[in-house]
Amino acid sequence: MSVEDDAARQDDPGDIVDAVFAISCRSLPVDHAYALSQAIHGALPWFADEPGAGLHTIHGAPSGSGWMRPEAAGAVLQLSRRTRLVLRLPRARLGDAAALLGRTLDVAGWPLQVDKLSARPLSRITTLFSRGVVFTAADDEAAFLAAAKRALGALGIAPETILCGRVTLVATPARSVQTRSLMLAGLKPAQSLALQRHGLGEARTLGCGLFIPHKGIGDLRARSD
After folding, report:
1. In the chain, what are the domains?
2. Confidence band (pLDDT; 50, 70, 90) for 138?
3. In Å, how far are 140, 147, 156, 194 from 153, measured between CA atoms?
């Protein structure tokens, strides 16, 4: 049975949601995925082993408003009051995730205070974007696209359009994880929901392989968020 068929059989389309936390945090390193993941694991010991769980890394203002994401090694993001911490979780884990409320997480030496929690359902939008998907061929565009198509095909998902974008490295103590952004368009609503539930590739708790809705197709190489 394909993921699309499985999604169509779901009685509750809200079985996986995004847990959205208000935060107080002035700055974070651009490459904060590992440090934030470790802080979340320390506060929520079940997070690393929870099927369907993932971490959305934190991003600043979009470049379309004139702000450009810094690129230099050790660069720091300046965050606004509207910035949120988002975890993708089974809805049944929302109560457990509330253990973050009132905590101040240490993210590579930067304090991140966690405040209010709300649940955001997955979107039925049929264009999806992932800031970073992990396949072994990330540095070769053609090979990466072929790997993505094979993985999607194994899930029974066939987008009308598939585009890959920039390569990004996620640093961990063991190695640097190479990722590449990926946009899919022309999905069926059931496929969109299924892919958001399932994700693609490895390292979900480092912010990889998670898909978010996108309004349309642009030049992914020009994206800096």
Report:
1. 7-121 (3.30.70.1890), 123-222 (3.30.70.1210)
2. confident
3. 20, 10, 5, 13
